[in-house]
Amino acid sequence: MSLPTIAITMGDASGIGPEIIMKALARPDVREMCRPLVVGDAERLRLAGSIVGSSLTVNSLERPEHARYAPDEVECIDLKLIPRNHPFGRVSPVSGEGAFRFIERAVRLVEAGQADAICTAPLSKEALHAAGHKYPGHTELLAELTGTPEVSMMLVSPKLRVIHVTTHIGLIDAIARIEPGLVERVIERAQTTLVKAGIASPRIGVCGINPHAGENGLFGYGEEEQKIAPAVAACRARGWRVEGPLPADTLFFLAARGDYDMVVAMYHDQGHGPIKVLGLESGVNITVGLPVIRTSVDHGTAFDIAGKGIADEGSLVEALRQAADLAPQRTAAA
Question: Looking at residue 307, what DSSP letter applies?
Answer without folding.
Answer: T
